Amino acid sequence: MKNLSQAEEIDEIRTLVRNSGLRSTAARITVIQFLRKATSPLTHAEIAEDLTPMGFDKATVYRNLIDLAEAGLVKRTELGDHAWRFELRNPDEPEDAEHPHFVCTECGSVSCLHDVEFKTPKNKQWTQVGTVTEILLKGICSECEEK
């Protein structure tokens, strides 16, 4: 992310939201600012926990996450635990660009694996499977391994 002043960042987010066809509201700007700082996909509960003290109720946060996801600004992912997680889409990537995630089976932490690339072989077996849209890796994170 570029080094922007607070005002420049808000202006950039306003433009991003408006260009997606949504109204630029304080809640949407705050949600995007929060997701920009996140290092991994977050649940609605995790986001709302930080934003409700700022005056945004849980329903407002949820509605805005859904609106931003439908507008293509935020990606919504379910990683096998029946909880939607949200992360900001990279505007430099195509809308259907995906990256794998790693979920720790001990503590439940989630990590994005942006630098990991999987190539689907072009053989008969894979064409029978169809199109792979998401890859989820599970294991034990380095912090839990040290315990």
TrEMBL record:
<dbReference type="GO" id="GO:0008270">
    <property type="term" value="F:zinc ion binding"/>
</dbReference>
<feature type="binding site">
    <location>
        <position position="107"/>
    </location>
    <ligand>
        <name>Zn(2+)</name>
    </ligand>
</feature>
<feature type="binding site">
    <location>
        <position position="141"/>
    </location>
    <ligand>
        <name>Zn(2+)</name>
    </ligand>
</feature>
<feature type="binding site">
    <location>
        <position position="144"/>
    </location>
    <ligand>
        <name>Zn(2+)</name>
    </ligand>
</feature>
<dbReference type="InterPro" id="IPR036388">
    <property type="entry name" value="WH-like_DNA-bd_sf"/>
</dbReference>
<keyword id="KW-0479">Metal-binding</keyword>
<dbReference type="GO" id="GO:0003700">
    <property type="term" value="F:DNA-binding transcription factor activity"/>
</dbReference>
<dbReference type="GO" id="GO:0045892">
    <property type="term" value="P:negative regulation of DNA-templated transcription"/>
</dbReference>
<feature type="binding site">
    <location>
        <position position="104"/>
    </location>
    <ligand>
        <name>Zn(2+)</name>
    </ligand>
</feature>
<dbReference type="InterPro" id="IPR002481">
    <property type="entry name" value="FUR"/>
</dbReference>
<dbReference type="GO" id="GO:1900376">
    <property type="term" value="P:regulation of secondary metabolite biosynthetic process"/>
</dbReference>
<dbReference type="Pfam" id="PF01475">
    <property type="entry name" value="FUR"/>
</dbReference>
<dbReference type="GO" id="GO:0000976">
    <property type="term" value="F:transcription cis-regulatory region binding"/>
</dbReference>
<dbReference type="InterPro" id="IPR036390">
    <property type="entry name" value="WH_DNA-bd_sf"/>
</dbReference>
<keyword id="KW-0862">Zinc</keyword>
<protein>
    <submittedName>
        <fullName>Peroxide-responsive repressor PerR</fullName>
    </submittedName>
</protein>
